[in-house]
Amino acid sequence: MRASDPTGLHRVLDDRVVLPQAADRLDTRKELWPDEVRIRVERLNLDAASFRQLERTHAVGGRGDGDGVRRAVLDIVATRGKMQNPETGSGGMLVGTVEEVGPESPLGLAVGDRVATLVSLTLTPLVIEDGLAGWDGRSEQVPADGYAILFGRSIAAKIPDDLPADLGLAVMDVCGAPALTARVVQGYDAPVVAVIGGAGKSGSLSLAAARRAGAKHTVGVVPVQAEADLLTAAGVADDVVLADARDPIALRDAVAAAAGGPADVTVVCVDVPGCEGGAVLTTAAGGTVIFFSMATSFSAAALGAEGLAADVTMLVGNGYVPGHADYAMEILREHDGVRSLFERRLG
Amino acid sequence: MRASDPTGLHRVLDDRVVLPQAADRLDTRKELWPDEVRIRVERLNLDAASFRQLERTHAVGGRGDGDGVRRAVLDIVATRGKMQNPETGSGGMLVGTVEEVGPESPLGLAVGDRVATLVSLTLTPLVIEDGLAGWDGRSEQVPADGYAILFGRSIAAKIPDDLPADLGLAVMDVCGAPALTARVVQGYDAPVVAVIGGAGKSGSLSLAAARRAGAKHTVGVVPVQAEADLLTAAGVADDVVLADARDPIALRDAVAAAAGGPADVTVVCVDVPGCEGGAVLTTAAGGTVIFFSMATSFSAAALGAEGLAADVTMLVGNGYVPGHADYAMEILREHDGVRSLFERRLG
After folding, report:
1. pTM score, whole prediction
2. Cα(B244)–Cα(B251) distance, rounded to whole angstroms?
3. C-alpha to C-alpha distance for A179 and A184, rounded to whole angstroms
4. What is the mean pLDDT, run by run of 10 residues, along chain B of 347 residues?
5. CB-based contact (8 Å) between B120 and chain A?
6. CB B241 within 8 A of CB B220
7. B157/chain A closest Cα distance in angstroms
8. B139 touches A: beta carbon within 8 Å
9. SS3 state at B193
10. What does residue B73 show for φ and ψ, rounded to 5 degrees?
11. Which residues pair with B283 in a beta bridge?
12. Which residues of A touch B19 (CB under 8 A)?
């Protein structure tokens, strides 16, 4: 047995040397390397883009085919040893209970801890043992029995006792966004912050984080009146404006009208393609755009900013910032408006 | 005639409101809006990825078909009103002479100035008038007669008199990289800087910029011995190491062995896919990765860093930084090693 690597490299079965996330197939053996942790899985939370792709592919006569979607997920996990949709490249996260802790694990977990994994399913060795019998294939929330492996360098967070599990999970799913937004906002002196997709999960947390971190003025951008009403009622943003983020001029003008000028920090939280140019155009010279949307095109962002001669810093939204889960929970606990937006989504 | 917009929006012919770079088709009318400039085109410099794609598509029996490539370029420009390869999405740049300056142009150009455009061909209205009769379709350098339009917010740089035109053009083509590298390096206290693809155009300029901006130690990473020899002879990097950047562990270990640990700043200048994980893994906690490669995958970078629990800042390499062309020229003039690497590539 080869030595373990904190990145999980020792479980990659591909011929080429690649990290687990880039691998075609992972080793899902149950026995742990000394720095690993095994989780008894309770629930998978599929990435929204991945679930929608599976639903579209398996629609019959325009209607979703839950059995087909379930078979597809089982097939992906059995083939790859992880839940990574080959089309979208995305995965999701999982909730479960710590089943065994290797003697050299640095994660600080104990057997019996109820945890959510904060690294993607795209790199987590996973075995499903119940054929997903408890899932109808019609929701991103997948009850499942099986096990998953965490590496030395993985991240898992204990699920808070004072919050319902689904709420805690939904917050953890997007907890990188508020933490990184706060860090960027703190780098400016009382900046104007615009959050595109402000009524969503990562968007509402980012708006609250921006205000807490010292933003002078926050603008939440949403595409439809119903979302504008919800966001206004939640009291998370100083201004709420309606704009299609794919229309760069409309976006720029809507933010400028609300804030009296361009944003110093623009946060893109809306999962539709084609928002790069608008985000750049909405941001002042010397400002920063943070892209959290997985629909972001690297080349559209790079060429777009160059083409506009825009001196803006563009960040790839890293889902990991130290302390991110605790920080997001703190915001949720102290801000009823954010909590109401989350609870509404959970239905 | 509608009013002009500094972004060039007034020349977009699409039904949807999009910026010129995202547009299918641009208005190439010769008459200028008041803030525009018209350039008499002398030469196009096609983006390398675009040219290779055209060459592959038009190969006959494994050999390039220059006539086919030329017809393809003419067809793209005639159809779209700009040279943007529909497959790669990329364009290139152009050299020419200022033919007319609108009364409200803010670019500071005068009729007769010889300039290179520093915004991409993907958003530059272009008409070719000579059928590319002087081009054999076998090189990225395309002699051409025709005209192009610059908008209020475009960037064009005068070609320096003291450098051969092709050398000046090659430097301008990548001048965003050294300027942004210098800015990031200055944000650290004597950092270790690794440049992946250090022997290339943007790579060698970035290495020289990093040293000039206060790097304690610079490491150039190259894939083959011949490039290592060239880079060593040029004296641009403190250390030159061999590694395949697609192999994350090999990359991490090679840089750590040379620099005594991870890099504080990692600059990705090599145009092959799959370098995201390695670049993240090579970078210390609190460090920065700058992606200049158009082959970068946004989701691979975002999910890769999250999966490694890597607290690194990841920047989309913006091709525009104020003063970037002058800064790159300054480096070239004062560093014979960088100049020799450029001249070797120009043949």
Report:
1. 0.90
2. 7
3. 9
4. 88 92 96 98 88 89 88 98 91 94 96 91 96 94 96 90 84 93 98 97 97 98 97 97 94 96 96 91 97 90 90 95 94 95 87
5. yes
6. yes
7. 13
8. no
9. strand
10. -65, -45
11. B263
12. 248, 277, 281, 304, 307-308
